[in-house]
Amino acid sequence: MSPTPQTAAPTPFGVRLRAAIDEHGPLCAGIDPHAALLEAWGLPDTVDGLERFALTCVEAFGGAVACVKPQSAFFERFGSRGVAVLERTLEALREAGTLSLLDAKRGDIGTTMAGYAQAYLSDASPLRADALTVSPYLGYESLRPALDLAAATGRGVFVLTLTSNPEGPSVQHAVRAGRTVAAAVVDGVAADNAAARAAGELGSIGTVVGATVGSAVADLGLDLAGAGGPVLAPGLGAQGGTADGLRATFGDALALVLGNSSREVLRAGPQASALRAAARAAAEALASGVETHRG
């Protein structure tokens, strides 16, 4: 009897993301089909308008940026037909060879968290993405089903850490046992990325830190550089974040930053060519301030 062939381990998300950033620059382009943007593009606020919007974004961003982040809520608001469009969008990004980061911010415990993990991080799921945003505020270890499945399937997880909404500090800045809650989240990410750091690779567990949080990273003692994973920085452009401002906010973690621009780039639509040009310009602006700090 011949031996059973061994299946090669999947390439970790962090390795794939590093290659994509090196090729395209440190931009994650958003797909945020909310009603106002559909209207601005001359599209109806319907499932048909949603699909035209999303697939135009894929046409524009596919093969042009490091990563694309669909916002799940704007698909889910149309019910099952909207989720079907999200499935097609994720499939189209896979076909384009572009990494997808699904912004769903899932967070729960036990078998429910395992169910979310299966929905978005399993090889068998039609909703699978290359990475998923999650919320750790039921306790970092409540994310374990997603963290473990992501590791097994070569996918990534981005953990909400320090957000720019005014309600965030009441939880994230709180101090427990001498550490802020946000710093404890970073500690968990660092532990999960330890093997990747030892191998000289970018970790597959990332943090989410708003581009407009100002000095809070330093003030709260967040060792983002030591955590060893990518730092998704939403809020560039329309929300006030700038490529130049990232230096002051992220300091020695600047080389790990994956800047996220959604509305600012999407305003260039509805023509795919104009969207692509806007995304490339945003990526180049980020690269000039970020990539020079990679080593």
How many structural domains can be distinguished in the coordinates? 1
CATH topology: TIM Barrel
Which regions contain 5 or more consecutive residues with pLDDT less than 50? none
Kindly report the name of the CATH homologous superfamily. Aldolase class I
First-to-last CA distance: 49 Å
**Helix content percent band:** 40-55%
Shape: globular
What's the average pLDDT? Answer: 93
Major beta sheet summary = 8 strands, parallel, barrel
> Do you know the CATH architecture?
Alpha-Beta Barrel
The CATH class assignment is Alpha Beta
Structural class from helices and strands? alpha/beta
Rg, Cα atoms, Å: 18 Å
Strand order of the largest sheet: 1-2-3-4-5-8-9-10
Q: Helix segment count? A: 15
Give helix and strand order, one letter per element, not per position.
Answer: HEHHEHHEHEHEHEEHHEHHEHEHH
* Number of extended strands: 10
Q: What proportion strand?
A: 15-25%
Summarize the structure.
Residues 26-278 form the Orotidine 5'-phosphate decarboxylase domain. With 295 residues, the protein is of the alpha/beta class.
